[in-house]
Specification:
It is a single chain. The chain is mainly alpha-helical. Helix content is 77%, strand content 0%. Helix 1 runs antiparallel to helix 9, helix 2 runs parallel beside helix 10 and helix 3 packs antiparallel against helix 6.
């Protein structure tokens, strides 16, 4: 389920909860909604509201951290790829094909991660995306004939290892998103709050409009959090500009 559909469903559930609360309040005996009863309901709901606010704050902070880490990883990988290309260029013209292969890896990453990569496609990255491994195999097969080239080979393998590590870290963490059980519990808390809104509020157009706007706002917040937790496959994604800049600088002599 996409982040957008999750947010829409939650917004619909919250608005429905408020509507159900309004319908029930019109059928309850008067003493059930006395001043004392309303005060008790408000106090109980305040506890749930506090828990919901803390949970949403935690989710926002966690999603922002995930998004920032993805941006940092992308910039670091772009810099390492350019550095690796320069090391290969210093090794000699015999690695021209390897450098072209490295450029192909960057182009493939841009295409997979940024150019229309759907969530379904992202889920299959583990099956057919080998990243920089072909370049590493070519580097291991080298037989340097002097000390300088041996040092360059060692340096190239070191840089490519760092790029590969970052690549697989992205694949392993890209599907985490929001914990399902946590999202269900949070949604239940929010439904309770909106049910209380409907239970204690008068039934008129102004109240209905405000409740609907609030439901859409909360659903939008969940959408943003869930979408930012998938920084390479959502509507809110990290920019591919560092990779494009790196690609433009590769292959130069």
């Amino acid at each position: 389920m996409t982040a957008l559909s999750t947010g829409c469903i939650i917004a619909l559930l919250l608005a429905s909860g408020a509507l159900i609360g309004t319908l029930i309040s019109r059928r309850l005996p008067g003493h059930h909604l006395s001043t004392e009863s309303k005060e008790a309901i408000k106090l109980a709901t305040a506890v749930v509201g506090t828990l919901s606010a803390l949970a949403l704050g935690f989710l926002v902070a966690s999603a922002k951290t995930t998004f920032d880490d993805a941006e940092t990883e992308l910039r670091d990988s772009a810099a390492r790829v350019v550095l690796l290309d320069r090391v290969l260029a210093q090794y000699g013209p015999e690695l021209l094909d390897v450098r072209k292969q490295l450029s192909g890896v960057v182009e493939d990453r841009i295409e997979r991660s940024f150019e229309g990569a759907t969530r379904l496609a992202t889920e299959h990255l583990h099956q057919d995306d080998v990243g920089i491994e072909p370049v590493q195999r070519a580097l291991r097969a080298l037989t340097p004939d002097d000390e300088v080239k041996r040092l360059l080979k060692s340096r190239a393998l070191e840089i490519s290892g760092a790029v590969a590590e970052a690549h697989w870290l992205v694949l392993e963490t890209g599907q985490e998103g929001l914990p399902g059980a946590f999202l269900v519990v949070l949604t239940f808390w929010l439904i309770v709050i909106f049910f209380t809104f409907g239970l204690l509020s008068p039934f008129n157009g102004t109240v209905i409009s405000i409740v609907v706007v609030c439901a859409v706002s909360v659903g939008g917040a969940v959408f943003i959090v869930n979408d930012m937790a998938h920084p390479y496959g959502g509507l809110i994604s990290v920019s591919d500009e560092p990779l494009r800049i790196a690609l433009s600088r590769m292959g130069r002599n």
